[in-house]
Amino acid sequence: MRQLYPSREAYKQGKLQVSDLHTIHFEESGNPAGKPIVLLHGGPGGGCPSVYRQYFHPDKWRLIMFDQRGCGKSTPHAELRENTTWDLVKDIEKLRSHLGIDKWVVFGGSWGSTLSLAYSQTHPECCAGLILRGIFMLRQKELQWFYQEGASNIFPDAWEKYIQPIPVAERHDMLSAYYKRLTSEDLAVRLEAARAWSIWEASTSKLFPNVELMQSFGDSEFATAFARIECHYFVNQGFLSAEDQLIKNVAKIRHIPTVIVQGRYDVVCPMISAWELHQAWQEAELIVVPDAGHSMSEPGILSALIEATDKFADF
Asked: Is 232 an active-site residue?
């Protein structure tokens, strides 16, 4: 099993104004002369913790990480206006151009895999490779599974806490009920909903639930951006023109070297999505980790991702 690379500080941090409203925070770490790779974090709304740097050989990669609109160190915090999938795709291109990069490898897990697919299908000429984890394509069956009925049958104890802020009469449509509260003018209502939403995801992300992860996801500042932005994207079906858009457009990226890492027991983004994507995209390598859930920090997924980043570094 592979282990994380030693921690290193970023050698450069910066801000990039991407609209009149939004400014994104970015950083570069590793080797300034290394192979460029951009990390697209999850959520949407998750931000980039420093531990992400440790998945990449520091002497081989020039790693670019940025906090997507409204989260992490990007501003304004938890902002939903001008915040769509296609705004983020444009931001990635603006950042690539700003940094003077011709082509880069794209690394993304969970929502980051969604955004990686959307970006690469829009700008295939800019992608030297894709490393994807925990495939999520924002289809209705995926949203229903996690936020309405499905995962609830595996984690009924955590589900009970997730539904608590929502009156029984509104529980037939949990996404809409949560969106109403996450956009409320009442701060207390927003925070209660944000914490319950975020802790539900943290409770289900690992094969063996992790209390520390739940506590970090319950932090008010993190939960507010995470829950608001996620729910905003999900009630709008990810701003896709069709729910199967990302799988239908595989032909645009079929030629790009790709590895997909998927936990067998991923409850947040069940393996069926990775399987169906792979069926449409046989050229992509699918690695199934037999003893893992959703989190990239689970030992088997961590090891497979580091194997993949090492392999792509030497292409």
From this structure: no
